[in-house]
C-alpha cells in the first residue's frame, strides 16, 4: 500500500460512517496521513446509500478561528487525537457524491 500511495497522484477515499475510527489506523495513519503529508490529493467519495445524517451532525465546540466540522472527526476515542486535524481537513475540502439517490 505504501508503494501505491508513493507512486500515485491522488488517493480515492470512499467515505462511510466510522472510516476515521481509532481502530481503523491502517486507513488513517498508514494510508491517509502519509498521503497528505507527501502532498497527495485526497478525493472523498460518498455513496448515496450512506445517507447524510453523519455529515449533518456538526461540532461547534472549536476554539476561535477553527471551522465547524462533522462531529465524527473530533470524538476522542473514536478518532485518534493525532488524526483529528487530518480528518477535519479531508471532510472540509469537499465530498463528491456517487451513485443514484
Element string (H = helix, E = strand): HEHEHEEHE
Provide the number of structural domains: 1
Percent helix range: 25-40%
For the sheet with most strands, the description reads:
3 strands, parallel
Average per-residue pLDDT, rounded, comes to 76
Task: Indicate the overall shape.
Answer: globular
Query: What is the tally of helical segments?
Result: 4
Using DSSP, what is the number of strands?
A: 5
Keywords:
single chain, 101 residues, alpha/beta, 4 helices, 5 strands
List the helices and strands and how they pair.
Layout (H helix, E strand, L loop, with lengths): L1 H6 L2 E6 L9 H13 L3 E7 L5 H4 L1 E2 L9 E2 L13 H9 L3 E3 L3
Parallel strand pairs: 1-2, 2-5
Antiparallel strand pairs: 3-4
Short description:
By secondary structure, the protein is of the alpha/beta class. It contains 4 helices and 5 strands.
In words, what does this structure look like?
- This protein has helices spanning 2-7, 25-37, 53-56, 84-92; strands at residues 10-15, 41-47, 58-59, 69-70, 96-98.
- The chain has 101 residues and is of the alpha/beta class.
- The chain has one domain (2-98).
- The strands form 2 sheets. Strands 1-2-5 form a 3-stranded parallel sheet.
- The model has no long low-confidence stretch (mean pLDDT 76).
Amino acid at each position: 500500500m505504501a508503494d501505491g500511495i508513493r507512486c500515485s497522484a491522488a488517493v480515492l477515499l470512499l467515505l462511510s460512517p466510522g472510516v476515521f475510527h481509532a481502530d481503523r489506523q491502517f486507513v488513517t495513519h498508514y494510508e491517509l496521513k502519509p498521503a497528505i503529508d507527501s502532498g497527495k490529493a485526497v478525493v472523498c467519495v460518498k455513496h448515496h446509500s450512506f445517507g447524510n445524517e453523519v455529515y449533518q451532525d456538526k461540532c461547534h465546540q472549536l476554539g476561535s478561528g477553527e471551522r465547524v466540522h462533522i462531529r465524527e472527526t473530533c470524538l476522542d476515542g473514536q478518532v485518534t487525537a493525532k488524526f483529528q486535524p487530518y480528518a477535519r481537513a479531508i471532510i472540509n475540502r469537499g465530498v463528491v457524491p456517487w451513485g443514484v439517490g
